[in-house]
Specification:
7-stranded mixed sheet; elongated; alpha+beta; 4 helices
């Protein structure tokens, strides 16, 4: 192999490894108090997103909160921290992405920033809260 070709291949591999490390390291960035998705059981008949059709891979925060919710107790998702300079939000999945997708799916299911979600267990009001926020 010619030295130019070898150097180009090594530089390309180095760049790929550097980009993979950057994206993998973004999950470790944490800034401020974490955000959670909460799912609180509610009474009434509101238009709601059908949560039985939600994928746990695409909506991990929302489905996590619904899984942890009971008939009379609110459920909380795993925490989500924003990055320091906004780089993490461009590459990582967030609860804000989930709520945006759910609003786009069914526009009339919102109550301010909250979303109504229906499961086999009942109707829930899901919202993003920030722990430690004043």
């Amino acid at each position: 192999m010619r030295s130019r070709t070898r150097n180009l291949v090594l530089a390309t591999l180095g760049l790929v490894v550097l980009l993979l490390a950057l994206v993998a390291g973004l999950g470790l960035l944490k800034s401020g108090a974490p955000y959670y998705v909460t799912a609180t059981p509610v009474e009434g008949d509101h238009p709601a997103v059908n949560a039985t059709a939600l994928s746990e891979r695409r909506f991990p925060y929302t489905t996590g909160a619904l899984r942890n919710a009971g008939a009379e107790a609110a459920g909380w998702s795993d925490p989500y921290w924003r990055g320091y300079v906004g780089l993490k939000e461009a590459f990582a999945h967030s609860p804000f992405d989930e709520f945006s997708a759910l609003r786009g799916r069914s526009g009339n299911v919102t109550d301010g920033e909250a979303i109504y979600v229906r499961t086999d267990a009942g109707l829930f009001r899901a919202e993003i809260v920030r722990e430690g926020r004043l």
